[in-house]
Amino acid sequence: MRHAGGGTVDYDYDVFISYSHRGHVRDWVKNHFSRELQLYLEDLLPTDPRIFVDFEIPAGSPWPDRLEQALLRSRCLVAIWSPPYFRSDWCMAEWKSMQLRQEALSQGNGQAPTLVYPINFMDGEHFPEEAQKIQQYKELTKYGYDGPQFRDTPAYLGFQDRMRTVAEEVAACLACAPEWQEGWPVVRPAAHAESPQRSVPRL
């Protein structure tokens, strides 16, 4: 696919990190998870990894549109699961959008690349049945400390070991991702679809 001007259209990001802003998840993603994923993918990939995290959206930007564009232009989604994740219309829209992409790719031959990589941050017992049926998520519940001081504890070495495996498995997902296509399916939260100002907060 090419732009009208002749430039090739491709993915903007390798990984889209999807997570709830409630509880300890946001600071954990910012202080630890995204940092270690970036570093380990730098060790593994032949090109510089491109990771989208929404706290990097500049202030004043139309962030709902920015989120949607980033999701459509990402090779895979890493979902950080906690109970608030499944109560967030935004998080569910991100997850469902990538699931629909997988389903679209599976039509015809029954095979599709894995495009969603779930992380269990907290309390899988209260996940919805659909999530509980997925057995391939990575368990990181015992490393859910969000403060910067976590990096100075012995437990951080265990966290880094797990993140090495996470990065290796995400790299495998990236290697199997399809070429970018125009018209990937997208699910919009009702608040976003109905708000002309598109300023509804993401939780």
UniProtKB/TrEMBL annotation:
Pfam families: TIR_2. InterPro entries: TIR_dom (IPR000157), Toll_tir_struct_dom_sf (IPR035897). The keyword Transmembrane does not apply. Keywords: Receptor. SUPFAM superfamilies: Toll/Interleukin receptor TIR domain. The keyword tRNA processing does not apply. Residues 11-145 form the TIR domain. This is Toll/interleukin-1 receptor domain-containing protein.
